[in-house]
Design brief:
4 strands; mainly alpha; about 45% helix; two-stranded antiparallel ribbon
């Protein structure tokens, strides 16, 4: 018998809604882990798309994420929801990932242009 401390990590809850692309010729299954990260077969593709949207729609000159106007954040959410079927309950987690992608993009730009 396995003690609770030795148990294997739990699998994603099959009852949780999955981000599934709208249209397209194949189905992508991903879900969020407890930490809000997208996991699954095509999670890298999803996160790459989210990062591209963030860099495209949110200017880097804002000092931090709370200073970014909600209209930019809502634009990102609307576009990603047009491409993937996402539950509204996941918005906070996905926007937290968008914050990290935006901040890392700013850091890369700053490093490049400060040289």
């Amino acid at each position: 018998m396995i003690s609770p401390s030795q148990s294997t990590p739990s699998l994603p809850n099959p009852s949780e809604p999955l981000p599934i692309p709208v249209g397209g010729s194949h189905v992508e299954h991903s879900t969020t882990s407890g930490g809000g990260h997208i996991v699954g077969k095509n999670s890298t593709k999803f996160m790459s798309r989210l990062g591209n949207l963030v860099r495209e729609h949110i200017p880097p000159y804002y000092p931090d994420w709370p200073a970014v106007p909600d209209r930019f954040k809502n634009t990102i959410w609307q576009i990603i929801c047009e491409e993937y079927v996402l539950p509204e309950a996941e918005k906070r987690k996905i926007m937290r990932s968008a914050n990290n992608l935006w901040r890392n993009g700013k850091k890369t730009l700053k490093k490049k242009y400060d040289e």
